[in-house]
Design a protein that fits this description.
Layout: H1 5-32, H2 97-100, H3 112-119, H4 128-139, H5 153-164, H6 168-178, H7 183-195, H8 199-208, H9 216-225, H10 229-242, H11 247-257, H12 276-284, H13 309-321, H14 327-334, H15 345-361, H16 364-380, H17 384-396, H18 402-413, H19 418-423, H20 430-440, H21 451-461, H22 467-474, H23 478-492, H24 498-509, H25 513-525
């Protein structure tokens, strides 16, 4: 009896599953025994590169060929082969040196492993100005390190740092610029697609790239997303028969493919390490998991319309706090509708809406009445800088007095127009005089008002850098020097204030005066003492 086209497709899928099973299982076992990446929440969506045509793969149990070595060998067994003159992907970037002000030889004489270690240093929550500087550094076009290899290790480290910061759009753009079909690059692109609601695009890329070998969960997910439920079910049965899915994956995938069959049953166990793929499947079976205690990147999944308004707001607050999304996203969510409850985030939405309405009317009295409560709410949520980016200019145009005038001044100092706002202000206190001095770059006659001010002042008065910073600059290793300064300043506010002085001095010595001033102002105005 002739086989129709649909049956042929299903049989072809089964054949492919069987052919890949041994290779996939071996790769998955190896992956389970070693670290996945600098970030440990990536989905196991693909295994190693396919390398050869499917029809030419060796059977899973085929004996390994004896390597050609010794007197009769053509090459020693430890020789590695690479393509000559192929440019390293480590230099790929989105921002040209003309726009960043950073030199193209950003890494100078630095070695790849040391640079990667500097990028992946233990996470510290930096100030907004330093977050922006770090993001610029990660996205900058730069000459690869002198010992850069063809495997794109530095590019992956930069992408992983962006993912760790929740900057998914920037990471996706960097991946697209690299244009690599490398499995490790694809894993990152696929997870970004899952978290931002572009999973169909990720699945299409997986299916159209023969160099990729999807794992069973990823293949089943994508088959179901394309509407091919029969092939997805067949693939799962094949994986079950061959023992290539864990009991946890089996439980989740079975319910994902046929939720009605398991109605009333206990939920599948939550994975010890939630991945974007498992998160999306829990969502698909009607059991979305909160992202509040998951890595920051997961918060993007709750910005989609499928999430409730409260979840969207809380996710946007996390991302805006980290500088990972534009403040306008938060503005749109805060003003989407009137809060239907009180307490917690709803109180914040309420005072924000009252202030925003007053500001739109242009009534100084109404603004003065509502600004203090709105500013306190933003301070409590550590959203002062997004608030300043949204409203500083409008506030600066209003004739405010008293407490409202002081708040508007501080909001202005946290905005890009800090210099002009400082020059237009007559200091009302010793503290304000010091803030104006920082904003204008001159501390002559200004007295530091507190311990933190006394740590900041020497960087703007003397500006001498330490020997380790001088060595890095002498070797043209500006990128590493900046990474070290970001880390030391961020740690300094939580303890040793010497790091604040040294880090700010480095930024000024490197010509980053704007970043140094903004960082100093944020140190004084934001409560970020850990």
């Amino acid at each position: 009896m002739p086989i129709d086209r649909r049956s042929a497709q299903v049989l072809g899928g089964l054949s492919l599953c069987l052919m890949l099973a041994g290779e996939l299982a071996g790769a998955q076992t190896k992956a389970a025994q070693s670290p996945l990446s600098a970030i440990d929440w990536l989905s196991q969506s693909v295994t190693t590169q396919a390398g050869t045509a499917v029809g030419k793969r060796a059977p899973p149990n085929a004996p390994a060929e004896t390597p050609v070595t010794g007197d009769g060998g053509a090459l020693p067994s430890n020789v590695s082969v690479s393509v000559l003159d192929k440019p390293s992907s480590d230099g790929v970037g989105l921002l040209a040196s003309t726009s960043t002000g950073l030199p193209r030889d950003l890494w100078g004489m630095g070695l790849q492993a040391e640079i990667i270690n500097s990028i992946g240093v233990e996470k510290v929550e930096p100030l907004p100005a330093l977050t922006g500087l770090l993001m610029t550094l990660l996205l900058a076009e730069a000459t690869p390190p002198v010992d850069s290899t063809q495997n794109g290790a530095l590019l992956r480290a930069r992408i992983d740092k962006l993912l760790d910061m929740g900057a998914l759009d920037q990471a996706a753009s960097l991946l697209a610029a690299a244009g690599s079909a490398d499995p490790e690059m694809f894993r990152r692109a696929f997870d970004i697609a899952l978290l931002t609601g572009n999973e169909d695009q990720g699945c299409e890329m997986m299916q159209s790239t023969p160099e990729l070998a999807p794992t069973f969960p990823a293949r089943i997910f994508c088959l179901a997303r394309s509407g091919d439920w029969s092939a997805a079910a067949l693939t799962l049965r094949t994986a079950q028969a061959l023992g290539y899915v864990t009991p946890e994956d089996d439980s989740l995938l079975s319910r994902f493919l046929d939720p009605d069959l398991y109605e009333g049953d206990a939920l599948p166990p939550l994975p010890e390490r939630m991945t974007p793929l498992s998160w999306r499947m829990f969502e698909a079976i009607g059991e979305p998991q909160s992202t509040a205690n998951l890595p920051l990147a997961f918060a993007h999944a709750e910005l989609r319309d499928t999430a409730g308004w409260k979840s969207q707001i809380e996710a946007a607050e996390r991302l805006a706090r980290a500088g990972a999304i534009a403040p306008n996203v938060l503005l749109g969510l805060y003003t989407e509708r009137l809060p239907a409850a009180s307490g917690g985030v709803w109180d914040r939405v309420d005072v924000f809406q009252r202030f925003e309405t007053a500001l739109r009317t242009g009534d100084p009295g109404a603004v003065a009445q509502n600004l203090p409560a709105a500013w306190q709410a933003m301070t409590d949520a550590e959203l002062e800088v997004p608030f300043a980016l949204l409203f500083a200019e409008d506030l600066a145009r209003l004739p405010l007095t008293g407490d409202a005038s002081r708040i508007a001044f501080e909001v202005g100092l946290l905005s890009p127009r800090y210099g002009a706002i400082a020059k237009a202000r007559s200091p009302q206190s010793q503290r304000e005089a010091f803030l104006i001095g920082l904003a204008t770059g001159s501390l002559i006659g200004a007295t530091p008002p507190d311990t933190l001010g006394r740590a900041i002042a020497p960087a703007f008065v003397r500006g001498t850098i330490t020997a380790d910073y001088a060595t890095l600059l002498d070797q043209r290793r500006l990128g590493e020097a900046v990474l070290l300064a970001i880390n030391r300043i961020s740690r300094g506010v939580q303890g040793d204030l010497t790091g604040v002085t040294e880090g700010l001095a480095l930024l000024r010595q490197a010509g980053m005066e704007d970043v140094a001033r903004r960082t100093a102002l944020e140190l004084m105005l934001l409560e970020r003492r850990g």
